[in-house]
Specification:
heterodimer; A: alpha/beta; 9-stranded mixed sheet; two-stranded antiparallel sheet; 15 helices; 11 strands; about 10% strand; B: mainly alpha; 7 helices; elongated
Chain lengths: ~475, ~210
């Protein structure tokens, strides 16, 4: 019997050891292989009860209560991009009044989630909201089709490695996460809450009704995620351009309502510059823009007060305080902002229609110099603010030869380097997503090394597509 | 008795160890080829009456196929430069077939597929001029498809009775609320307008 016991113990021990080693999960939110197989056979349902917020909540989480004709979401379908139409009762709608949709792709082996907010300009009048030529406008003036993710729409085609599963150019840990793609169709940096009528200045065409409904669209998307996805172990809120600003604006409510164990933010090229409402435009170049969008998008009629109610350190008369407020409220989160000093896209939106000196510039070169100058003033102030926040890093390279040096994390993570410090953008991303201690702050003084790089055919191709 | 017990223990331990080893290595089911996964089978929900063998569910097959596709594609891009022309071409064709299949299945965004296909061209086409031409053709093909679809989408909206019904109601409500001198319920004009328009959308899309 002793021999039997000894032999059995040895065999079982060996088997158990082998089993245990292979069953260890790889990282936060990852499941073991046994859990994976169990989940593949029976996917884990959403596990966050929807709590009815007080009726006084001006932006409640509203979900679908009755079936619709739209194709139902299938929680057992993994890796496939599924279209989720958010019905009218959720409060969501695109700018032109058509139904709003989000796109989701689930994985079976972890509960980590990346919420990616699409970029695509901004609009505040007939020309910019209808896509009139010659004016920088906003993405998707005609709404979002069901097969959006299969179309090479520039807003979707400038894919970020954060939200692709198989990117030949760069890897990111989010490529194995659950993904939520939030499209942009309201022209309001996901902050607006106003229905307006815009008249054609030429008088030739009928006026349009436009729904600056970005704030409510984000709330509806949040409600859907909470109702249908498991609570995130890790969550990244990110996006580029308007999507970057949107991820910054939505971060507190994502954080509160989705309640991840660990949370990260990367605002790529969607700055909300420190700008007092009553500041002078010469000293605070974004002042005219901020004041204009407050009125155009109804920011003072709900969204700002709602944000401030959750962020005690946010001063609604100086929108750039949102950085400090988030940093203070979430000291253990890792937050980051990045944009190029030579960005000519977001800067043009911010200044060219608001500063007389730009409008009267004698030529394009002079105009761009003025834009770059104002951007540098604003960027310097934001850089200094973020330098003082240990958990909110600021990464400011100079120039990249694609998309007017706009967006650091689209296409690939390359060429956002800060050569004098031997830093790559990836160092910043890693500092946010996997780092310890102070989140990396870095800035580049000269674009000489960037402009000396050889021709990049891929970037040239992407620019043609844009 | 002792011998039977020994065999029983050995058999049990072997089964457990084999399972552990296969889980640890992530061994895919036997139907995956060495360099290319077959196209995914049409997705279907598991048969609830079938015995619960997790290895055989559609979800499990889908998971392993996706893993195999990812690994094969990444391995090809890593090794392409060191492969002989014939093997490189053969493996590239297999990767391309998989890209086709996974794109058809809705697992790849358009931009993702374009980057993958462009990278395949760069890995297999040695002539820089021809490389540029093929990638441009690729981009134009996708761009053209997108333009056609977006045009079709705009026309679809024009012909969509629910959307047009809503837009008609929207115009009427906008005019009505704009003319109101008092807004009920203590709401702001914009708040009242939003509530009215949401109601109209719910009516138009059949929810009320």
């Amino acid at each position: 019997m002793t021999f039997v016991r000894q032999t059995a113990a040895a065999l079982m021990g060996t088997a158990l050891t082998l089993t245990s080693a292979s069953l260890l999960a790889a990282g936060p939110g990852d499941q073991s292989q046994l859990e994976l197989l169990r989940k593949l056979a029976s996917p884990r349902p959403a596990d966050q009860p929807m709590v009815r917020l007080p009726r006084t909540d001006p932006y409640p989480l509203l979900t679908q209560t009755r079936p619709t004709a739209a194709k139902a979401y299938d929680p057992e379908l993994f890796y496939v991009w599924q279209t989720v139409q958010l019905p009218a009762e959720t409060g969501a709608v695109c700018g032109n009044g058509s139904p709003y949709k989000i796109f989701v792709s689930r994985v079976p082996d972890n509960a980590n989630t990346v919420v990616y907010m699409e970029g695509g300009g901004a609009c505040w009048d007939y020309g910019s909201c209808t896509g009139a030529s010659g004016i920088r406008g906003a993405r998707n003036p005609n709404g979002v089709p069901d097969d959006y993710m299969s179309l090479l729409n520039p807003g979707a085609s400038l894919v970020s490695p954060f939200v692709t599963r198989l990117n030949p150019l760069d890897t990111a840990k989010t490529q194995g996460w659950n993904m939520v793609y939030i499209p942009y169709c309201t022209g309001d940096l996901y902050a607006g809450d106003k229905v307006v009528t815009y008249n054609d200045p030429s008088g030739e065409k009928p006026p349009i009704v436009w729904h600056h409904n970005g704030f409510r669209n984000t709330r509806a998307a949040t409600a859907w995620i909470k109702q249908n996805f498991p609570r995130p172990t890790q969550m990244l809120s990110t996006g580029c351009s308007a999507g970057g600003a949107g991820s910054l604006i939505a971060y507190d409510t994502f954080r509160r309502d989705l309640a991840p164990d660990r949370s990260f933010l990367i605002d790529d090229s969607g700055p909300i510059f420190p700008t007092p409402t009553n500041g002078s435009p010469q000293q605070y170049p974004s002042q005219p823009l901020h004041n204009h969008i407050r009125a155009a998008w109804g920011l003072d009629d709900g969204p700002l007060a709602y944000l401030a109610s959750g962020l005690p350190q946010m001063d609604t008369s100086e929108l750039g305080t949102i950085y400090s407020a988030l940093s203070s409220k979430y000291p253990n989160d890792r937050l980051g902002h990045a944009h190029f000093w030579q960005d000519l896209n977001y800067s043009s939106y911010s200044y060219e229609r608001f500063h007389p000196d730009i409008q009267s510039a004698p030529n394009q070169t002079a105009k761009e110099q003025l834009i770059h100058g104002k951007w540098a003033t604003d960027t310097g102030r934001l850089k200094d603010r973020l330098n003082g926040l240990d958990n909110f890093g600021g990464y400011f390279p100079q120039y990249r030869a694609v998309n007017e040096s706009h967006c650091t994390t689209i296409i690939d993570f390359k060429n956002g380097d800060i050569q004098p410090q031997q830093l790559e953008l990836r160092h910043f991303i890693d500092s946010v997503l996997d780092g310890n201690g102070k989140v990396l702050d870095a800035t580049e003084d000269s674009d000489a090394a960037d402009r000396a790089k050889p021709f990049n055919f891929l970037y040239w191709l992407i620019d043609q597509l844009l | 008795m002792r011998r039977k017990f020994l065999w029983l223990m050995a058999g049990l331990a072997t089964i457990v160890a084999a399972a552990a080893l296969s889980f640890g290595r992530g061994i895919a089911p036997a139907n995956t080829a060495s360099t290319a996964a077959p196209p995914p089978s049409p997705r279907s929900t598991p048969d609830d009456t079938a015995p619960r063998d997790p290895r055989q569910t559609a979800q499990v097959r889908s998971y392993w196929q996706h893993q195999q596709f990812t690994q094969d594609t990444q391995r090809f891009f890593r090794e392409a430069a060191s492969l002989g022309p014939a093997e490189r071409a053969l493996r590239a064709q297999a990767v391309e077939r998989n890209i086709d299949a996974h794109e058809q299945a809705g697992e790849l965004q358009a931009g993702e597929a374009v980057l993958l296909r462009a990278s395949l061209i760069r890995a297999t086409e040695r002539d820089p001029q021809r490389q540029m031409e093929r990638i441009q053709d690729l981009a134009l093909r996708y761009r053209s498809h997108t333009e056609q679809r977006m045009e079709a989408w705009a026309q679809q909206q024009q012909a969509d009775p629910q959307f047009q019904d809503y837009k008609q109601r929207e115009r009427a409500v906008m005019a009505e609320v704009a003319a109101m001198t008092q807004i009920p319920g203590g709401l702001s004009r914009n708040q009242y307008l939003q509530q009215r328009l949401q109601h109209e959308r719910e009516v138009a899309y059949g929810r009320r």
